[in-house]
């Protein structure tokens, strides 16, 4: 099986994307950040930046950044983290 198109991001110009062991993220030309994958269990906070935990099967916009008017330019996913970069700040789900 080869790569598959991420249809939920159709119509958006993705400028950066990352995939970790359990999460994926993408940021768009207009500064929006989308995450999907495993968002944590009952004893973990969401690794995806969404209110709900568990599995997010398709990309979902991280509303915190939109609400706060924060423009994301780059994302990074690893074994147990998801991070997002602005022009002057790094946001992470870990300390």
Describe the structure.
It is a single chain. The protein is mostly beta strands and 95 residues long. It has one domain (13-86). The chain has one helix and seven strands. A hairpin with a 4-residue loop joins strand 2 and strand 3 (33-38). The model has no long low-confidence stretch (mean pLDDT 86).
Query: Are there runs of 5+ residues with pLDDT below 50, and where?
Result: none
Structural class: mainly beta
Strand order of the largest sheet: 1-2-3-4
Strand content: 35-45%
Would you tell me the overall average pLDDT?
Answer: 86
- Which range best describes the helical content: under 10%, 10-25%, 25-40%, 40-55%, 55-70% or over 70%? under 10%
Query: Span between N and C termini?
Result: 37 Å
- Total number of domains: 1
**Radius of gyration, taken over Cα atoms and rounded to an integer in Å:** 13 Å
Oligomeric organization of the protein chains: single chain
Number of strands: 7
Figure out the total of helices: 1
**Which word captures the global form?**
globular
Order of helices and strands: EEEEHEEE
Main sheet summary: 4 strands, antiparallel
Attribute tags:
four-stranded antiparallel sheet, 95 residues, mainly beta, single chain, three-stranded antiparallel sheet, 38% strand, globular
């Amino acid at each position: 099986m080869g790569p598959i198109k991420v249809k939920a991001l159709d119509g958006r110009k993705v400028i950066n994307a990352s995939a970790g062991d359990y999460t994926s993220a993408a940021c768009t030309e207009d500064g929006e950040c989308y995450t999907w994958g495993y968002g944590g269990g009952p004893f973990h906070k969401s690794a995806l930046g969404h209110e709900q935990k568990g599995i997010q099967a398709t990309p979902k916009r991280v509303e915190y950044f939109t609400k706060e008017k924060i423009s994301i330019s780059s994302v990074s996913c690893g074994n147990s983290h998801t991070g997002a970069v602005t022009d002057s700040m790094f946001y992470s789900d870990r300390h």
